[in-house]
Amino acid sequence: MPAKPEPDNSHRHIADSETSSHSFLQYLRETLRPYVGLTSFTEGARHEMVQDDVQDAVHPVPAHSRDELLGAYLEATSGLLELFSTDELADMYRSNVYAHDPPGWGLDGDLIPATDVALAIGAQLREPFTCRAHSTYYFRNGREAAFKTMLGRQNLSMVRLFTLLAFYMIGACQRDTASMYLGVAAKAACVLSLHRASTYSNSSESESSSNRARIWNSLRNVDVLSSFIFGKPKSLPAIRQSSSQTHLSFEYLGNDNLTPFNSIVKGCSLLEEIVDELSSGKILHVPTAESLLEKLQSWSQSLPTSLRKVSFTGDANVSRNALRSITSPTGKDAISQGDLSARQKLAGALHVSCIYYFAVILISRPFLIAYLLSRLRGRAPDQLIPNPDEASDMAIKNSTISKMAQLCVSAAMRTAATCAAAHRHGYSFGNLCLLKAWVFGAGLVLGFSKFAGEPRKDIDEAFEQVNTVLESIATQSPQAGLYRETLEAFRESIAKWHDRVETEIKRTVQHYMDDILVIHGSAQNQTTIGPNFPSGAFYTTDTPQSYTDDHPPGLDAVGVDNAAPWLEGWAGGTPQSSTQVLRHLGFGDVISDYESYDDPFFNFEPFEKLFYSVE
C-alpha cells in the first residue's frame, strides 16, 4: 500500500467535534467494542479532520486556466448547484482580464465574488491537498466581498455567494463553518421570501422566477444533503407547515444541462420524506419502508436515459494534467472542452446514483443492523445470503427483515461498483466533497456485514472497491485518506473477530477430536476443492461453548430453544411495528422508546437516530 503523503504545515489536524454524536461510525465503534476489545477502530477519534488554512496569496492564474477552473467547478457541482444563469456563465467565460474592477472584468459587480468562489471550488477539485494556493486565493477574495456586504444588501447574489462559500467549506472539511455559511444563506433566502411560492409571480425581471427557483433549490440541495453528513438539522424552513419539505417545484424548460439538477431536486424531496416518516417512530416499520422504497423506485425509473447510461473514456492523469495547465504559460496540457463536458455529465450521473443508493441505505440500514446484531447474539440461523428466496430455511425465506437487510448491503455494493466503474474507465474523482462521504458510508455498511456475516466474496470485492475509490480521492482530499485509514482499521477489527471465532471453534473441536493424518506434497500439484474462501473463513453460526477470561461476557452459546423466536414465522404476517421486529429478532420485550431495555450489546438510543447520518 503506498504511503499517504504527509500534509504540509498549511494544514492542521483537529479532533472533530463537528460530526454527529449519533453518527453511524461512532455507533459501530461502540457496538463492536464488546466483541473485539480495544482496537485502532473502536478507540479511534470519531473523525480526525484536516482543515485547509488560507495560504499566502499568489498571482492569479492565466485566463485560459481560469476557464478550466470554471469547467472544474461545473464538474464538482454537477447536478447539485445551478447558481448561474446561461448568460452569466457565458459572461464568465468571455472575461479575459482579471481585475477586481467591474469594467476590467466586464462582469456585473455582484458576479465577481461569486466567480471567485466558483474558481476556488474548481481549483479545490483539482489541486493536491498539499498545495491549495490557487483555491485559497480565490476563496479569500470571495469571502472578503461577502462579509463587506452581507448585512447591508440582502439579495439573490448574497444567497448565491454564501451557498458557494458553504460548498467550498464542505470540500475543505470545515463542517461547522460550512454550516454557519448555510445558515446565513438560509436566513437571507427567508428575508427575500424565496421559500414562499406566492412571491415568484411578483419577481422583477432581474430576479426572474427561474433564477429565484434555481438559487433556492441549489441552496436547498446542499442543505438537505449536507445535513446527513453534518448530523445536524437543516437550515431552511419548511414550505408547508404540515411537512418539512423545502422543495419548490419549478420546470426549467429548454436546458438539457439541468436534467441532473432537476432529478436531484426531486431526490432531495424524497430524502426529506424519508426523514419525516422514519423520525416519527417508524424506523423499523416494514410497511413504511416498503412504501418509501416504492416511491424511490418510481423516481429512479423516471430518470432519463442520459443519467442511467453514460459513456466515458477518460485520462487517469487528468488531475495531474489539469494542475500542470494552471501553472503552464502555454496551457499545453489543458483539458479539452469535450473532455470537460464528458466529466461534468459523468459527475452529475454519479451524484444522482449515489443519492439514490444512499436513500435505499437510509431506509434499510436499521434492518441490517438489527439482523446482524441478532446474528452476533447467536439468534440468526443463516448467513446474509445473496437471495433469501433461495434459502432452505423457511424462516429466512419468508423473512422480510432478511430481505431488507440484503437490500442495504446491495445498495452499498452498487455504490462501490458504480464509482469503481467510473474509476476503471479513467475518471479521476478529485475532491468531490459529497461523493466521498457517500462512498465511506457504503464502506461502513459493507464492513459491518463482513464483521457479523458469513464470508461472501462479493462483499469483500465491494469493500476493496470502496478503498480504491477513496484512495483515488485522497490525492485531492485528506479527509478521503482518513476515511480509508478508518476502513483499514475496521478491516483489522474484522480479522481479529474472525480469528477469535476460529480459535474458539478449533479449541472446541480439539477437545473432542484429534487430527490423525497430515498429508504433505508439492505445492505445484495442489488443487482447490470447493469455494475459494479466505483462510480462517469457515466458522459456524453457533457461538462456541468455551471461553477464556479475555473474551467479552454475554457471548454464551444459544441453544435451539433460545433460537426458536427467530425460527418462528411472523405471527399474522408482516410485522407492523419496530417493537415486533426487535422482539422477533430475539431482543425480548422492548417498549417503543427502548428506555427499559438493558443490554450492553445493543444501544437503542442512538439506533433510533441512525437514519440521519451518512457516516
Automatic annotation (TrEMBL):
UniProt keywords, alphabetically: Membrane, Nucleus, Transcription, Transcription regulation, Transmembrane, Transmembrane helix
InterPro entries registered for this protein in UniProt: Fungal_SecMet_Regulators (IPR051127), XnlR_reg_dom (IPR007219)
Residues annotated as transmembrane: 355-373
Taxonomy, superkingdom: Eukaryota
Key word Transcription regulation present: yes
GO molecular function, one term: zinc ion binding
One Pfam family named in its UniProt record: Fungal_trans
BP-aspect Gene Ontology terms: DNA-templated transcription; positive regulation of transcription from RNA polymerase II promoter by galactose
Domain Xylanolytic transcriptional activator regulatory: 152-245
Entry-linked CDD domains: fungal_TF_MHR
Any Gene Ontology CC annotation: nucleus
Protein name: Xylanolytic transcriptional activator regulatory domain-containing protein
Species whose genome carries this gene: Exophiala spinifera
